[in-house]
Structures are given as C-alpha cells and as structure tokens.
Structure to design on (152 residues):
C-alpha cells in the first residue's frame, strides 16, 4: 500500500472514536488490567460464558480489533498508520496475552481460524519490532503478577 491518505486518517479517527464509547472502554479496561488467563481453559471459560459481562467484553474487544485489522488486511487502511504506536498497541497486548494458549483454545473451541487475522498482523514484518517489545513487556507483567501472587 502506498503513502497514507486523508481517507486513511479519517478512518483511523473513526476507529479511535469508536474506542471511546463507554462500554468498549470498560471492555478494554477488563482486557488490559483484569483478564490474565493462565491457560487455555481460562480463555475457553470466558468464551463459553454466554450472557456474562466478561463474555461480552471478550467478544467486543476482539471484534473491534478483528474489524480494524481486516481493514489493513484488505488494503482499506494504511498499514503504516495502523501500526503507529499511538493506535494499535492494545491489539498487541490482547493477542500476546492469548498467544501461549491459542493453539489449544482453537482446538477446544473447534475454531481453527480464531484470531488468525490478528495473528497475521502482529507477526507481520511491519510489526516485528513492536511484537518483540510487547511480548517482553507482557512476559515481565506475567512474572510480576506471579511473584505478587506467591507473596500473598
């Protein structure tokens, strides 16, 4: 894809505005601070808990990033703008939190393409450095959480 256009910038702004809606803010907060699965069963439990707030938040945030990512995958949105640090960092956090369990979750839910769009994006050449940094950060956060749990 070529140089980002004004239309790309407008779409990024619309996506940003959608992230500011009250309920998705709650969902994003849950994903980034509360939801720290330790295994595939933790993920599947939320996925199968229809009617719960956590299930709704799980689906809402994954749906948002799946939709946003599809714009990039299909050439509707500039990859360059999408991968700006100020825009898509949360997508990396979410994917990397699930990544260690993804194969097993796909198997247990009989959904072999679960998060495949996000996986393609975060593992792309354009995202390589960002992926490495966020992976290290999430690993450090997991370690710190485990240490706090031991100390309690």
């Amino acid at each position: 894809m070529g140089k980002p256009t004004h239309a790309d910038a407008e779409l990024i702004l619309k996506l940003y505005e959608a992230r500011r809606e009250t309920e998705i803010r709650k969902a994003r907060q849950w994903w980034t601070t509360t939801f720290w699965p330790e295994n595939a069963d933790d993920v599947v439990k939320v996925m199968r808990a229809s009617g719960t707030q956590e299930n709704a938040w799980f689906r809402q945030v994954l749906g948002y990033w799946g939709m946003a990512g599809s714009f990039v995958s299909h050439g509707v949105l500039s990859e360059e703008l999408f991968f700006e640090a100020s825009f898509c960092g949360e997508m990396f956090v979410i994917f990397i939190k699930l990544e260690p369990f993804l194969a097993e979750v796909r198997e247990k839910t009989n959904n072999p393409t679960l998060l495949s769009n996000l996986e393609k994006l975060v593992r792309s050449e354009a995202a390589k450095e960002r992926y490495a940094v966020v992976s290290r950060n999430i690993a450090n956060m997991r370690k710190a959480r485990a240490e706090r749990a031991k100390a309690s």
Remarks:
- Residues 6-151 form one domain.
